[in-house]
Design a protein that fits this description.
single chain; 480 residues; alpha+beta; Arc Repressor Mutant, subunit A; 3 domains; nine-stranded mixed sheet; three-stranded antiparallel sheet; 42% helix; elongated; binds adenosine-5'-diphosphate; binds magnesium ion
Length: 480
């Protein structure tokens, strides 16, 4: 019997607000242990939470960008559990009234467009961090992260493979980064994901029993954990046994999953509306206003790159991976007016150089206008494509504009017909034997003369012109 894989992801995104979701302690990453705390973070008696408007606005932004319905009347709920990194004994979250519902995320896997439905996106606060110190056998608690705003994005179980799960997660990361609601940094824990997975016989409509793998913090781990879990569940089902519904941890060193706890039900959490927080009313005008301020999203950029700039879907995908990429690309195009050449330069030469130097686009030594200028110098035949590559290297190393480098190095390409013709005539006249052969039909000698002219001009002649003018001069001599 063959099985189909069913996956649903719960993605946690840490919002890049200045302060926490219910108080004004800093929401910054890092800091000395327990530097960013206050009475609300500590859950001291009498400390009252106040909702961060910005965090709600970020939720609305992501909801709109994922085509969700935005709930107008929002309530926060207390979710109870005991753990030292949660001083209040409950996490403030949303339960049956999440701010966003029924949306979808669209993305490409190669040339294939995929859509994964969203059940909901809700707001909640993050917990602190426990550090288990094996040296002293003590557990240390750092509450800097406690109360940092999170969005939890819950997908429908519509993902069908580990690779698709990773592609979906990339699309979510790309969206939050475009919207600038989160830096999406998985290493720092700003984006993490719980993966739910089950198998069912092909053709079966009912879902199988699922397991949930907690806290995956890299794309690679998501794929590897899911691959492992598919194989594990497959072996169980093949042997005629039943998968036990439970919560698992992924051991990235061993590449295996292991049980963490049996699956809890929502009743275990004793959810109830938080009496300390008034409902958040999201007025129509607020949603309208946020909609008007949304930046262009990756899908819109990509569509335009394909339909108006004539780029391939592949190139459009590469260029829209980050908002900074596509913005840079557009500045290059604005400076040179050649969208295909700009795409080639940005995606190969430029990204290659950044990569090699270990630089981020924000640290680029080459300004977009300068790269555009360089492309223009090639297009108007001031320099050859080959020269342009060495000019580019120099630009990358020195941040000088291309025109300065071309001047300093005396790199001008010889493009003037008369100048090139003069060299060709001289070479024809000094090599009468080869010329006779060439005129007599030995076309291999064409390359011989091209070589001579390029050499005589120190490689500065426009190669295409050299080609054409040698033929033109040969024709003229034959008929003379
Ligand atoms: P819970 O309330 O128990 O967390 P949800 O219905 O909110 O359950 O689903 C949590 C996540 O698990 C969602 O992303 C959903 O798509 C996924 N999921 C639900 N059922 C299954 C299943 N049988 N197999 C795989 N994923 C599932
Ligand atoms: Mg859940």
């Amino acid at each position: 019997m063959e099985f189909e894989t069913v996956i649903g992801l719960e993605v946690h995104v840490q919002l890049s607000t200045k302060s926490k979701i219910f108080c004004n302690a800093s929401a910054a990453y890092g800091g000395e242990p327990n530097e960013y705390i206050d009475p609300v973070t500590l859950g001291l008696p009498g400390a009252l939470p106040v909702t961060n408007r910005r965090a709600v606005e970020f939720a609305i932004m992501l909801g709109l960008a994922t085509h969700c319905e935005i709930r107008r009347f929002n309530r926060f709920a207390r979710k109870h559990y005991f753990y030292p990194d949660l001083p209040k004994g409950y996490q403030i979250s949303q339960f049956d009234e999440p701010i966003c519902e029924r949306g979808h995320v669209d993305f490409y896997m190669g040339e294939t467009k995929r859509t994964v439905g969203l059940k909901r996106i809700h707001m909640e606060e993050d917990a602190g961090k426990n550090i288990h110190d094996s040296r002293t056998a003590a557990s240390l608690v750092d509450l800097n992260r406690a109360g940092v705003p999170l969005l939890e994005i819950v997908s429908e179980p519509e993902i069908r493979s580990p690779a698709e799960a990773a592609a979906y997660l990339r699309a979510v990361r790309q969206l939050v980064r475009y919207l600038e609601v989160s830096d999406g940094n998985m290493e720092e824990g700003s984006l993490r994901c719980d993966a739910n997975i089950s198998l069912r016989p092909v053709g079966e409509l009912k879902f199988g029993t699922r397991t949930e793998i907690k806290n995956l913090n890299s794309f690679k781990f998501v794929e590897r954990a899911l691959e492992y879990e598919i194989a594990r569940q497959y072996a169980i089902l093949k042997a005629g046994n039943q998968v036990v519904q439970q919560t698992l941890l992924f051991d990235s060193e061993a590449g295996t999953t292991r049980p963490m706890r049996s699956k809890e039900e929502s009743a275990d959490y004793r959810y109830f509306p938080d009496p300390d927080l008034p409902p958040v009313i999201v007025e129509e005008s607020w949603v309208h206003d946020v909609k008007g301020r949304l930046p262009r999203l990756p899908a819109e950029w990509a569509n335009e790159l394909v339909s108006e700039h004539g780029l391939s879907l592949y190139d459009a995908t590469v260029l829209t991976a980050e908002r900074a990429f596509v913005e840079y690309y557009h500045q290059v195009v604005a400076a040179c007016g050649n969208s295909k050449a700009a795409c080639n330069w940005v995606t190969s030469e430029f990204f290659g150089a950044l990569n090699k130097a270990g630089l981020d686009l924000s640290q680029t030594p080459v300004k977009a206008v300068d790269l555009g200028e360089l492309i223009k110098l090639v297009d108007d035949e001031t320099i050859s494509g080959k020269m342009a590559k060495s000019v580019f290297e120099e630009m990358f190393a020195t941040s000088k504009p291309p025109s300065t480098i071309v001047q300093e190095k005396g790199l001008k390409q010889l493009s003037n017909d008369d100048d090139i013709l003069a060299v060709i005539r001289k070479e024809f006249d000094s090599n009468p034997g080869q010329l006779a052969g060439y005129l007599g039909g030995n076309d291999r000698l064409h390359g011989f003369f091209v070589g001579l002219v390029m050499k005589a001009t120190g490689g500065s002649a426009n190669p295409k012109k050299v080609n054409d003018l040698i033929r033109q001069e040969a024709t003229a001599r034959k008929s003379a």
